[in-house]
Amino acid sequence: MRRVTRNLLVAIALVVVALLALGALPSYLGGGDPYYLTAEPIETAEPAADVNNASERRWPFLTSALASDDGRSDPYLSDAYGIKEWFTHTPFDEVDALTRQTPEAATDDGVRVRYDGAVYRVEVVQP
Question: CA angle 55-42-63, nearest 5°?
Answer without folding.
Answer: 15
